[in-house]
């Protein structure tokens, strides 16, 4: 018979590690939620004089790799002075295989731990009888059998779903995981990402992009990943989940987007709405092959030629890329013309000389951004002085707020200790912890208001002023590749309609053209700190390429 759970604490250990786990929503709904488990375990510890020295509440699938918290528990038990009891509700909450049992049994034999299984009415110690140990092993065996049975069912279900054209797992970028009316898993089009996916296929099908340039294009369009491991931490883009460069190639080679899915090396039709046509997919694969074989020499020659507006403009009529090309007149002069790629069929958009677009930008934009030389140096000095003063003030205010925040965190920890030890009641604890949480939120919001003014930001402002100081002349004297970099810094969302360029002016240049004088541009420079941080890398690169080398 198993040992009864009422015992003399003087003869047993007095410290406990509590362990609760759920591995599915179904378990939560069946009354084995973490809260229910912890309530039962905590009451048991109180009734038996056990001091809780560590609690682990785990909400995860039992099939997701290593159980880190489980090993954390064992390491903690090893570090404890004296014997420690591990308290769980059921055997299968703690163990699912004999691999787990081995290390537990080793610590038990050493007298380091004892294990309390509440629902099985079982305590396993160094001196447990053979009957108790057998009872324990039987429960582990049953738990292991349940896991293996579940795995078999999952595999059978997967095989049938694939045969029915249903996708298993995380949806490809451009689709979203959801549930239908019957609460069954399905996929739907991601209205935010799917149009960008289609654009990437269309752009690459022209043969004018490398994977690197298409990756830049994807980031420019705002294509983000749903995966947590793709972070872009550069000042240019901030901490956002942009997809990796390798992911671009994966997307372009994934047949899922036209209606087929890869399953263990085989292609199977799926039941979901395609994002592109098979013809477009095949065209992209041809471009991949042509690049690897280097058979389209004219494309290679085209790539070697630099164009100011290359990759910047879409057709306002049909949405296709506007591509540049050289034309040689009878007099021997070379001109650059821009035309629609006609990837989506016929389009009425005609040829336009790039000089016409430069004249338009010169009149509408360059001349309004330019800073007169007589005010440039004075403006730079004034702006940088303002930034320096703001940096000192922000640092002091932020430091004070962080001190207040740490005091609150300490109060929160002390309050939790009092509650766990039973010195304060739950209603008092909840009321005070809510007050602390509200105050923490207020402080954290206040801290974020005081942006750090770094040397990079100061340099960016200085570089912006240098660029704006003689923008029109810089643009007209630069080579086409440098013109392209400069244009990308200043404008975006460019479309061509009836020989006229439509565009959006990028920050902070959008504010520049709205001010009556250059002195107003940086009147409150600290208001635009996020803008300067986001474009820091771009501005530095443009200055080095365009200003230094000109």
Task: Summarize the structure in words.
The protein has 550 residues and is α/β, with parallel strands linked by helices. Among the domains are: 15-152, Rossmann fold; 188-299, Alpha-Beta Complex (Hect, E3 ligase catalytic domain fold); 300-367, no CATH class; 389-449. It contains 20 helices and 15 strands. It has helices spanning 25-32, 34-47, 68-79, 91-94, 98-109, 130-163, 194-205, 211-221, 245-252, 278-293, 297-304, 354-369, 373-420, 426-449, 455-469, 471-477, 480-490, 509-512, 529-534, 536-548, and strands at 15-22, 51-59, 84-88, 113-117, 122-124, 175-179, 185-189, 260-263, 266-269, 313-315, 322-328, 334-340, 352-353, 491-497, 500-505. The strands form five sheets. The protein has a five-stranded mixed sheet with strand order 2-1-3-4-5, with helices on both faces. Strands 10-14-15 form a three-stranded mixed sheet. A three-stranded antiparallel sheet has the order 11-12-13. Strand 14 (491-497) and strand 15 form a beta hairpin. The longest helix has 48 residues, at 373-420. The protein is flat and about 105 Å long. The N and C termini lie far apart (90 Å).
């Amino acid at each position: 018979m198993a040992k009864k759970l009422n015992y003399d604490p003087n003869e047993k250990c007095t410290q406990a590690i509590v362990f609760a786990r759920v591995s599915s929503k179904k378990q939560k709904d069946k009354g084995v939620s973490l809260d229910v488990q912890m309530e039962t375990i905590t009451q048991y510890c109180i009734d038996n004089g056990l001091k809780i020295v560590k609690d682990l509440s785990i909400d995860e699938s039992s099939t997701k790799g290593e159980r880190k918290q489980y090993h954390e528990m064992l390491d903690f038990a090893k570090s404890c002075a004296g014997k420690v009891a591990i308290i769980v509700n059921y055997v299968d909450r703690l163990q699912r295989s004999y691999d787990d049992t081995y290390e537990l049994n080793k610590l038990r034999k050493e007298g380091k731990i004892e294990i309390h299984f509440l629902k099985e009415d079982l305590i396993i110690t160094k001196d447990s009888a053979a009957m108790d140990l057998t009872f324990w092993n039987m429960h582990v065996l049953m738990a292991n059998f349940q896991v293996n049975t579940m795995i078999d069912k999952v595999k059978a279900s997967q095989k049938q779903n694939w045969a029915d054209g249903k996708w298993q797992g995380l949806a490809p970028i451009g689709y979203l995981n959801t549930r239908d009316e019957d609460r069954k898993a399905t996929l739907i089009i991601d209205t935010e990402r799917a149009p960008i996916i289609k654009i990437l296929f269309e752009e690459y099908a022209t043969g004018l992009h490398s994977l690197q340039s298409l990756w830049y294009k994807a980031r420019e369009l705002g294509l983000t990943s749903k995966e947590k491991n793709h972070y872009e931490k550069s000042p240019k883009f901030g901490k956002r989940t942009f997809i990796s460069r390798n992911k671009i190639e994966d997307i372009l080679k994934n047949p899922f987007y036209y209606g087929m899915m890869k399953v263990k090396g085989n292609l199977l039709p799926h039941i979901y709405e395609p994002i592109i046509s098979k013809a477009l997919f095949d065209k992209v694969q041809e471009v991949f092959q042509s690049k690897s074989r280097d058979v389209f020499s004219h494309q290679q020659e085209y790539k070697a030629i630099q164009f100011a507006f290359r990759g910047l403009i879409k057709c306002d009529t049909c949405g296709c890329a506007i591509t540049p090309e050289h034309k040689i007149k009878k007099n021997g002069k070379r001109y650059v013309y821009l035309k629609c790629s006609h990837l989506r069929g016929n389009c009425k958009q005609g040829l336009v000389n790039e000089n016409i677009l430069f004249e338009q930008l010169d009149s509408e934009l360059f001349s309004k951004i330019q800073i007169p030389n007589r005010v440039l140096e004075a403006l730079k000095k004034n702006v940088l002085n303002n930034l320096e003063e703001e940096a000192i003030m922000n640092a002091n205010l932020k430091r004070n707020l962080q001190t207040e925040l740490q005091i609150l965190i300490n109060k929160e920890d002390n309050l939790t200790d009092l509650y766990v030890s039973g010195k304060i009641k739950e209603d008092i604890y909840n009321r005070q912890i809510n007050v602390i949480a509200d105050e923490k939120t207020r402080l954290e919001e206040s801290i974020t208001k005081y942006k750090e003014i770094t040397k990079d930001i100061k340099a960016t402002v200085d570089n912006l002023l240098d660029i704006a100081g003689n923008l029109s002349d810089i643009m007209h004297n630069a080579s086409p590749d440098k013109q392209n970099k400069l244009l990308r810094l200043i404008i975006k969302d460019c479309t061509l309609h009836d020989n006229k360029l439509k565009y959006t002016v990028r920050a902070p240049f959008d504010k520049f053209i709205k001010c009556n004088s250059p002195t107003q541009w940086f009147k409150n420079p600290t208001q635009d700190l996020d803008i300067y941080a986001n474009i820091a890398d771009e501005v530095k690169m443009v200055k080095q390429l365009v200003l230094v080398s000109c």
